[in-house]
Amino acid sequence: MPMFVDHSPPGQCIFCRLVAGEIPSAKVCEDELTVAFMDIGQVNPGHVLVATKRHAVTLLDITPEEAAAVLQTAQRVARAVQAAFDPPGMTLFQANGPVGGQTVFHFHLHVLPRHEDDGMALAWPRKEPGPAVLQAYAARLRAALQDG
Ligand SMILES: [Zn+2]
């Protein structure tokens, strides 16, 4: 995970300042709800961040319209990344909360071109609790959906 962590208050966070044009960025495109710009860290060439223009911290804080706009912008950017950099793979990465790997607390999605042995790592420890547990988890979520 990146070592940089932005603890600025809402409205003063680095992405809000970037959206406001107060700090420079290498902008790729923008629309009413989203802005796409080059990640300063560039895991691989063509690594872009898609952020909401409005300050919202996590996936749980953005509106359904913003969620739709972010993925539409990500797809548009991904097509451009494929055309311009031709990576053999691409990963979308979106982190929520410090434990989830979020380091800038303003909602954003990484469009990350991938190459063999590029050093990007995400451990994926399969635990396979079995069908009864899966059914119980699904029942909890169905109940939560009805509450929401
Ligand atoms: Zn912000």
From TrEMBL:
Sequence motif Histidine triad motif, residues: 106-110
Pfam family, one: HIT
InterPro entries the UniProt entry points to: HINT, Histidine_triad_CS, Histidine_triad_HIT, HIT-like, HIT-like_sf
Gene3D superfamilies assigned: HIT-like
Domain of life of the native organism: Bacteria
Start and end residues of each HIT domain: 14-121
UniProt cross-references to CDD domains, sorted A to Z: HINT_subgroup (cd01277)
Protein name, entry field: Protein hit
Lineage, highest ranks first: Bacteria, Pseudomonadati, Pseudomonadota, Betaproteobacteria, Burkholderiales
